[in-house]
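Lab notebook, bench 4. The sequencing result for the construct came back, and we need a structural model before the next group meeting so we can plan mutations. Quick request posted to the team channel:

Model the 3D structure of this chain.
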Amino acid sequence: MVRFKNRYMVLEVLLDPNKDLKTDDPIIITQYNVSKAIKDSILLNFGECGFASSLGSFQVKYVNPITKLCIIRASREDYQNVWAAITMVRTISNCPVVFNLLDLSGNTRACKNTALRLDKLKFEQYKLMVGHRLPDNVNLQMQNCLEKIATLES
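Done. Here's the predicted structure in token form:
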């Protein structure tokens, strides 16, 4: 019996620095927002056939709205199409964004370890950037996100 093989991509969502933003974060990155933007890009760039073939195992496994880190699963056969579609995503909810691939792995353990390490580093940067204005609920929200990564399964 052959196992179904996947690829896991750890991505960083970068908000466009060239756009003047009146608020700190114009959008809240959610699994739904990221999934919808990527699916729309797959449909636009690869048509219905490419969309249908990649939809089988495509899933946004994890999104951290604070550090803007996400994990996406795609089948081994279609991950390159998903990756190409991700690079062509320009907006999420009418806010300009750019995706940066940080890691590509074949199993959840390696992906989880990389995501945990990067999430901790990015949260430390976030705390330094915000300084004393850090709300109390952000630490709790970050702990919940780290626990969610720790329980990540295929």
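The radius of gyration is 16 Å.
Will bring this to the meeting.
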